[in-house]
Amino acid sequence: MTQTAATPMSLSEAAALADRIRTAIGQVIEGKPEQIRMAVIALLSKGHLLIEDVPGVGKTVLAKALGRAIDGDVSRIQFTPDLLPSDVTGVSVFNQATREFEFKPGGIFANVVLGDEINRASPKTQSALLEAMAEGQLSADGRTYRLSEPFMVVATQNPIEMEGTYPLPEAQRDRFMARIEMGYPAHDSEVAMLNAAATGDRLGSIYPVANVAQVRHAIHAIEQVYVAPVITDYIVRLVAATRANPELRLGASPRACVHLMRAARVSAALSHRDYVVPEDVSDLAVPVLAHRVLLTVDAQVARRDNESIIATIAASTPRPHRS
Question: In terms of Cα–Cα distance, which of 290, 294, 289, 270 is closest to 280?
Answer without folding.
Answer: 270
